[in-house]
Design brief:
Number of helices: 10
Helix content: 40-55%
Number of strands: 6
Radius of gyration: 18 Å
Strand content: 5-15%
Order of helices and strands: HEHHHHHEHEHEHEEH
Strand order of the largest sheet: 3-2-1-4-5-6
Largest sheet: 6 strands, parallel
């Protein structure tokens, strides 16, 4: 009941959101499962084991920061660029027949479009990876714009990518809802001054989401629809 009251108080204080920005990996698609398989193969080739602890430390960060963590973790001789290229090639090969939208994604996109609320993607992945993932479902044309690791100097948890997104929309940050599944992403969204909504998955259940304004169970959660002033899922 207290959580529900908190949502209503947030709605009373906030106008209808002017835009929604989606993270991609683990939020829109089941890519974190695939990235774990990629990390496992990447380190298997080097005689090491990819653990959940290392995965948690890397999650949500841009390629350089992510692979520099891996290098320090296992004292690898590789540079981050080598690991990033190899990982990207593995990922694009592994998504074939394995990648799926997260529950509620397509319905939420439809609802936002019916309401005329613009949307974008801000991901720590490369543009090549984004295009491979979105191209599988022909989704890129449904977004006003996309931002990737190549579009920023400082990756999540730095707020740069979300400040760029709000500027592209021409909106104040507190008029923009950001949907994130990782601690680093939520911290970036909160630091940018946006309405950060955490959508934890099994891969990020142990993350600290104290920076989020709201935590929901999935993209189909009625609390998310209420925040966005959208008709409840299934009512359209």
């Amino acid at each position: 009941m207290a959580e529900q009251t908190g949502i209503r108080e947030m709605m009373d204080l906030q106008p209808i959101p002017g835009a929604v920005v989606f993270d991609m990996d683990g939020l829109m698609f089941n890519t974190e499962d695939i990235y774990f398989a990629v990390g496992t193969e990447l380190l298997r080739r080097r005689g090491h084991v990819f653990t959940r602890e290392l995965s948690d430390a890397m999650m949500g960060r841009p390629p350089r920061a992510s692979f520099e963590i891996m290098i320090r973790w296992h004292n690898l001789p590789d540079d981050w660029q080598t690991l990033a290229r190899e990982s990207e090639d593995l990922f694009i090969e592994m998504i074939k027949g394995r990648i799926q939208p997260m529950p509620g994604l397509m319905e939420l996109l439809d609802a936002l479009e019916r309401a005329g609320i613009p949307k974008a993607i801000a991901t720590s992945s490369s543009r090549r990876t984004l295009q491979a993932v979105l191209g599988t479902f022909q989704l890129e044309p449904r977004f006003h714009f996309t931002l990737t690791a190549e579009d920023v100097q400082r990756g999540k948890p730095d707020p740069e990518i979300y400040l760029k997104a709000t500027a592209r929309f021409g909106l104040e940050p507190d008029k923009v809802v950001v949907l994130e599944d990782s601690e680093a992403g939520c911290r970036a969204a909160a630091a940018a001054g946006t309405i950060a909504v955490a959508v934890p998955g099994p891969h990020s259940a142990r993350h600290d989401f104290s920076s989020a304004r709201l935590i929901v169970s999935s993209l189909a959660d009625p609390k998310l629809y209420e925040l966005l002033r959208l008709p409840s899922p299934g009512s359209c």
